[in-house]
Amino acid sequence: MRSRRSLKSQAFTGHQIGMLLAVKAHTVVVGGGVMGTSIAMQLANRLDPLANPIVLVERASHLAAGSSGRSGAILRMQYADLEVARMARNSLTDYSSFLTRTGRDIGFRKTGVLTLAGARAPEWIPRVRECVEMLRADGVKTELVGAAEIRELFPGIAVAEDVIGAWEPDSGFVDPVATVEAFAAIARTRGAITRLGVEVTEIVMDGERAMGVETNEGRIDAEHVVVVAGPWTHALLGDAGIEAPLRVVRPEQHFIAMPSTGAGGREESRGDSLAFDDLNATGELDPLARLENETERRRSALKVAHPVIIDLELGFYSRCVPERESTRVGRIEYDSAAVLEDPDQLDEEVSEEMKRWSREVLAGRMPVYGDLPDVASEAALYTLTPDAQPLLGSIAGMQGLFVASGFSGHGFKLAPAVGEGMSQLILGDPITAFDADFFSPARFAGRTPQWGGNFGL
User: Fold this and answer.
1) Where are the domains of the chain?
2) What distances in angstroms separate CA 451 from CA 70, 357, 379, one per listed residue?
3) pTM value?
4) How far is CA 264 from CA 113, 172, 438, in A?
């Protein structure tokens, strides 16, 4: 038997420490994307790491290896369901203050988001009007703009007189990988364990009670298991005898060189201006405020040509990717995206048709892109539900087993609220971060799923 003294003097690797602490976890989170790391961060913030350790496992050798790393990470609040819009608003508040609160840069850019509707897809026009009216009544910062206002805001954009827009000046995007890594880093500083290259092979059940997970490196016992594995969620739950209405599709994105000069857009930035709250009691600049200003100055060298565009009339979205000097283009609807039975067999080759279409619609809305070169293309992974809303909550009839999946391409917009709400649910606290009934995994029980490819406005 090893003495206490010899145990204390024994040097352990980080992996060995993780194995020691993970013998009995409070919660094991399966999946290292934006949702898994957000949930782990929130749980670690609420629990004693020694008494109630949190363990996050990710099958890949790095975080954000699945859907999260391929995301455009656009942040918008324009949703027709208040339950979703409120989560997006609260999450945007969290992202926009993240650097000041934590000292960690997640690449938040307040470019604004413009959602367009016009006569070539007239069904969207009343929906955008109604959505703006509803959101404004609920305190969401958005406004309805007509063609003249759109041109004034963004010279160089091509809109007909019948085009309207929903303008969100405070919205924008984050860097997806930096965000996931920041969430995980904060979770670790609060005592959580992240184990990379560890694949969950089975959810361990004792009757109707989750007992932990079996992995390629052994079993992890846990009081709670949260499956946040994105495209791999359906298979994991299926192996445990749980049928979840989840489907994985393969959308494509294309990247075109970003204009060197602005296409009429404007990015709001703090620049060198200081707010009163930036000063501490001695009248000196607060260190986090100084960090934020320095970060903003570095970012100013990475120009953003225009705001995020959600073009319901032409059927595309776009956002600048300044670190790659390019603009990302993707389809809004995903009804033409291929369904993947095995997400490990993702075909990375993007069709020539997608490349041609991307240039056509982007240059049709912003002619400056007409002669700019192609940069790259990539395939992504969306995990869908029949109603384009995620499954959030406990699995009916299964104690200690939870799921957060099926975000249908909207995950980054909601991740902070999902992390908070799932931690509340797991800990038995009142759920204030989202509507548990609206997102309940049991809402499809007894129904035949009606799958579609409609954009989740």
Assistant:
1) 14-67+178-249+386-444, 113-169+252-267+304-379
2) 23, 25, 21
3) 0.88
4) 13, 16, 39
Q: Are 295 and 411 in contact (CB under 8 A)?
A: no
Q: Classify domain 14-67+178-249+386-444 at the CATH topology level.
A: FAD/NAD(P)-binding domain (3.50.50)
CATH of 113-169+252-267+304-379, one of 3.30.9.10, 1.10.3810.10, 3.20.20.60, 3.40.50.300: 3.30.9.10
Scan for tokens 């109630």, then name that residue.
52
Over residues 48-106, the pLDDT tens digits come to 999 999 999 999 999 999 999 999 999 999 999 999 999 999 999 999 999 999 999 99
Kindly give the residue spans of alpha helices, DSSP state H, lying in 138-175: 147-153
Q: Which two tokens stand for residue 230?
A: 């994105």
Ramachandran bin of 347, using left for φ above 0, alpha for ψ from -120 to 50, beta for the remaining angles? beta
Strand runs (DSSP E) across 143-216, as ranges? 143-145, 164-168, 172-173, 193-196, 200-206, 209-215
Q: Where are the alpha helices (DSSP H) in 145-227?
A: 147-153, 176-189
